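Quick note —
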Amino acid sequence: MIALEELQAVCRDIFASALAACNIQQAFDRHLHFENRTLVRHPSSRLPPITQPLAGFRDYYVISFGKAALSMLDALLERLPEKKHLHGVCSAPEIPKHRNRRIRYFAGGHPLPNEDSFTAAHAALALLKHARKDTFVFFLISGGGSAMLELPIDRAISLDDTIAFHETLVASGATITEVNTVRKYFSAVKGGRLALAAPQAEKLSLLLADVPLKDLAAVASSPTLPNYSSLSECSDILERFRLLEKFPTSVRAWFERLKREQSAAPPAQSENNPQSATAFGHAQFDTLLSNHDFVNAARDHAQALGYKVIIDNTCDDWDYAEAAKYLLARFHALRRELPRLCLLSSGEVTVRLGGHPGCGGRNQQFALAAALDLAQYHGQPLAVLSAGSDGIDGNSPAAGAVADTTTVARARAYSFDPEATLAHFDACTLFTSLGDSVVTGPTGNNLRDLRILVSG
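Predicted structure written out below.
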């Protein structure tokens, strides 16, 4: 029988291997390359090949934002054949030591916007105003961009009120798609508005998808793709989660104004969405990497280690407790028939925060809920890992955590109350004390989360 320490190491190895396989530089080369001054996009299962001569363009703009902004920007700049007339804006988790003099760098905030998020949005919109027909714009977009590049449509809304708006949405329990639907009607750069700031320019959006592929418009709240949601959908979300009463006065007033304008508008304009397909006629997009790449890389490595692999993404966007209950039940049922089992689940779970939460995030919250289940199987070789591909879980320094059948007993021996810790959203403290945190540091990537359940 495999030791629990070894089983934990297997979980960590599968996660690390999957992360390494999703290399952004390699993803660029798989999807596109430059032949002299011609951009060639390789064919994929979703998109046809494209050959785009760049000789007719005078200026090249790059707008890069999100948790992977630096990695994506570096990959593009290494390959871009023409940099003489290059200008750009980059809003990333941090400002790099080595910077391209033609790019303005900002340290945008996440999960909440900061002053640099506002300044970066101002800079991006100001740059795009200068775009013409002979301008080619690269948008490099990754998860986290909703906070790192932000500016209210109503400029009277302050940064503090914008932060409170984002904080309320993040803690509401709404899915990422629902959260981003609301953001589209608040922001001057979301819901396609960033692309519309340069209507005549040729545009290519390269995405790192931290959302299901069926909903690419949710990446960073769809700054460069048409807004296919409606104000009616937005209003429904605000009502279901009782958000208006929780928003700052200025934000509540903005949404109430939108609702009044919708009621007063003619039927053809009642959704407050004037965008049309023709407005995005010069826009193309491609997905460099997605959560599917991440989980498939984990599958391949687990199979190479000799495990029977089952992938179950059913609980994507579920509450963490319900997701843990579902996946553990499936895991226990499967391992009776498949003793050397690896159950993988990708996507994200949600957490509805209570008052005064501690240190942690959705992955550590899930891992602790799993640990409470595993405690009843003491002595059996079972382990669960849950971690985020960006290396950041909530407000903690960890990417996630790994638990086994001894986690609860070891925690109690250190005077922790696992149930109370779970209720207070303070799982990071517990897992750090046990040495069971998964710490990678910021990865420069963002392909959602991965849950790994393994039996020895």
